[in-house]
Amino acid sequence: xxTATEFRVGVTLHSFTAEYLASKWSFEDMMELCSYLGGxxxxxxxxxxxxxxxxxxxxxxxxxxxxxxYGLTPTSYGSYADPFxxxxxxxxxxxxxxxxxxxxxxxxxxxxxxVRLQYFAAPIVERLxxxxxxxxxxxxxxxxxxxxxxxxRTQQLLEQITRIDSPLLGVIPDMGIFARSVPQFRIAAARAxxxxxxxxxxxxxxxxxxxxxxxxxxxxxxxxxxPDKVLALEVMWGSFGRSDPKGLLEIMPHIVHxxxxxxxxxDGDEPxxxxxxxxAALLTGGYEGWISSEYEGPGDVSSFESVQAHQTMIxxxxxxxxxSRH
Amino acid sequence: MDSPAAHRAARLQQLLxxxxxxxxxxxxxxxxxxxxxxxxGIDLTVxxxxxxxxxxxxIAAIELSIDAEPIDVNRLLFVLQGNEYRVADFPALSAxxxxxxxxxxxxxxxxxxxxxxxxxxxxxxxxxxxxxxxGRFAFHASAMKRLTxxxxxxxxxQ
Lengths: 326, 158
Prior knowledge:
The structure holds two protein chains of two kinds. In chain A, strands 6-5-4-3-2-1-8-7 form an eight-stranded parallel beta sheet. By secondary structure, chain A is an alpha/beta fold. Chain A folds into two domains: 8-182 and 240-324, TIM Barrel (Alpha-Beta Barrel); 184-238, no CATH class. The longest helix of chain A has 23 residues, at 303-325. Chain A has helices at 17-21, 27-34, 45-48, 57-70, 93-110, 125-135, 152-164, 184-192, 197-208, 213-222, 230-239, 248-251, 275-284, 303-325; strands at residues 8-12, 40-44, 73-78, 114-117, 138-143, 169-173, 258-262, 290-295. By secondary structure, chain B is mainly beta. Chain B has a six-stranded mixed beta sheet, with no helix packed on it. The longest helix of chain B has 13 residues, at 4-16. Chain B starts with a helix and ends with a strand. The interface between A and B is large, with 41 and 34 residues.
């Protein structure tokens, strides 16, 4: 008999990117759609907030009135570090802090309990802690490929989190790091980009063998991969990781939010991501936060219906887990 | 019949059936004759090719041609929210944001004016997504479209 923990399933507006860019759905339309998808809403600062990184009165009213009208719960605010904004050099740490603080203020004023950080923010995170503590805001580094659980960067972040030792600083694992295979649409896209078949097959093999990009890329270039086609293969390492979902149990105390990244739902399941095991790990570990459905597959799919299918899958895995415990 | 559940279902169907446009660097907008800064030319509408807003410092390059004739980008005006910028100044414009939903206008000086009728426009926008884990990468997005000069809608900004 398990302790009946539950986590909640919501959605990030990032799932609706294709329809948003096509002006099919306005910001408010997307907010309304969230009310049919679990009610938890996550936004991407620079995609949805006019005036980013600062909060305008207009956007604050637009967001809050939608939250009220549709009975939504703000879950996580997607902040950006954007260290390569300047042409001639990276942001200094002062510039990075100056860019990040208005985003934290935006999140607090919009009613978000959590802010997603990119790992670039690590050198300034101690400067953020006084603000975070004053507002009871949680901040979490997104663990997104290539930041798998085992990666050196993730280990450094976890060391810092342990050292700072605040319940307000943690991580936001992206489900893309629990891939079992590279989605077919990415393989097709690499072919369409003109990556030669032997190089593509070798890249897939290197990815499956857990060879990191920094090692794989020189070999692929040595096989004749043209520089303008690098991105078509880099995306395998930049989007999909091969961590074991059981690893969630080890970092459970640090998880402040989850990104339910997925690329397709086929016959009710995500063929490339180990969702069943990840849901079981979250329930075993007693996770009680939110997971945002985050569709990032091809743009010619009905994202609303796809997110519905994704959430149905998660609930089925939750039910199966609880049933197996009785 | 008019239950809250039925109303909700009907509302959802309404949202799902909203029409959209085909998003492209070059939307289906006519070429508009214009006068800006005392020069005659045409206004071309363009969309940002990222999924998010970017500051102009992240626009690494613009390439344009009309009827296969390359345009000198140093002569263009880039118009955002009514404000005019030079492409050469983009590297310094890290505080000027191109909001993802806002079309921008590229003013192309033409003397003599572009002839009436359809023209083949080709464009490439090179953006830097400023947060990729793998470092600074330039993304190239290109589009080609046959667009028609619309003389009914002259734009004049002195």
